[in-house]
Amino acid sequence: MATARRAADLGYSGVTLPDHLDEQVGPLVGLTAVAASCPDLTLTTLVLANDYRHPAVLAKEVASLDRFSGGRVELGVGAGWMTADYERAGIPFDRPGVRIARLAEALDVLDGCFGDGPFDHEGTHYTIRGLDSLPKPVQRPRPRLLVAGGGPRILGLAARRADIVGINPGLAAGVIDARAGSTATPAATDDKLRVVRENAGARFGDLELQTRVHLAALTDDRHAMAAALAPALGIDPDDALDSPHALVGSVDQCVDTVRRWRDRWGLSYVTWGVDAMETMAPVVERLAGT
């Protein structure tokens, strides 16, 4: 709660919480605490793993939080990817196509729960009979939906169904390591945006595009930092400096970089970790509201 209040004071517009079975707090409980302590911050799950929760149960929790917060929830949900979570909890880790198909069906169930009156759903993964999920969220027809991913199938689903599309590195290995580097380059991001455009069709202009910055730092020598860190990330230093998942340099350079992301890819929703919250505050101050 103290961290969220500090973020608000620094000019950040929202708080996001991920969904892993490690030392972090539960994301929905954590965001409830943020809602109680900060009246203006957006509350985003970035992102919930669909396999960890039945969508009918999730819909009630999300709608309750949306009402408690006065309509500030952004529901980020994904197909699940971190193999360590699945292994430790004994949750079956199905192949990507199954997990993505299950997520697509879960989105149908969530829409039914958020809608007016009872509904039925008969699918491969979920069966709903006469459920009128209450309470309903403040935001209608539902809280803004964020779906994130790094591969064409999940990005295609996001483009067709979500309000916010998260452009991620590829995480097919089930861990974040050097294997993700080749999927975080500018060229790879161009390919991802082509997938999003093709699948979104006429609704592309209504989408908000989001990126998670995994390396955010202020430095007077961005090239030296990139050269030192890029090999461990499995990416060329020049590609690292232009990747939408790394932001390093002076305040002016970081501001210019984010503006280039917006011009090239349409990225306007940028997040980074709490470890960079204080350091990157001058960049937030320069960009907020632009």
Task: Break the fold down into its secondary structure elements and pairings.
Blueprint: H1 2-10, E1 14-17, H2 27-37, E2 42-45, E3 48-49, H3 55-69, E4 73-78, H4 83-89, H5 96-114, E5 119-122, E6 127-131, E7 144-149, H6 152-161, E8 164-167, H7 186-200, E9 208-213, E10 215-218, H8 222-233, H9 237-242, E11 246-249, H10 251-265, E12 267-272, H11 281-287
Parallel strand pairs: 1-2, 2-4, 3-4, 4-7, 7-8, 8-9, 9-12, 10-11
Antiparallel strand pairs: 5-6
Helix pairs in contact: 2-3, 3-5, 5-6, 6-7, 10-11
Summarize the structure.
The chain has eleven helices and twelve strands. The protein is about 45% helix and about 20% strand.
Folded structure, characterized:
- With 290 residues, this protein is an alpha/beta fold.
- It has a domain at 2-149: TIM Barrel, CATH 3.20.20.30.
- It is 43% helix and 19% strand.
- The strands form three sheets. Strands 1, 2, 3, 4, 7, 8, 9 and 12 form an eight-stranded parallel sheet that branches. It has a two-stranded antiparallel sheet with strand order 5-6. Strands 10-11 form a two-stranded parallel sheet.
- Helix 3 (55-69) packs across helix 5, helix 6 packs across helix 7 (186-200) and helix 10 packs across helix 11.
- The longest helix has 19 residues, at 96-114.
- It is globular.
- The two termini are 27 Å apart.
- The mean pLDDT is 95.
- Do you know the CATH architecture of the domain at 2-149? Alpha-Beta Barrel
Q: Given this structure, which CATH class of the domain at 2-149 is correct?
A: Alpha Beta
CATH superfamily of the domain at 2-149: Luciferase-like domain
Low-confidence runs of at least 5 consecutive residues: none
Total number of β-strand segments? 12
Largest sheet: 8 strands, parallel
Radius of gyration: 19 Å
What letter string, H or E per element, gives the SSE order?
Answer: HEHEEHEHHEEEHEHEEHHEHEH
Q: Which overall shape is indicated by the principal axes computed on the Cα atoms?
A: globular
Count of DSSP H/I helices: 11
Enter the CATH topology name of the domain at 2-149. Answer: TIM Barrel
Strand content: 15-25%
Distance between the termini: 27 Å
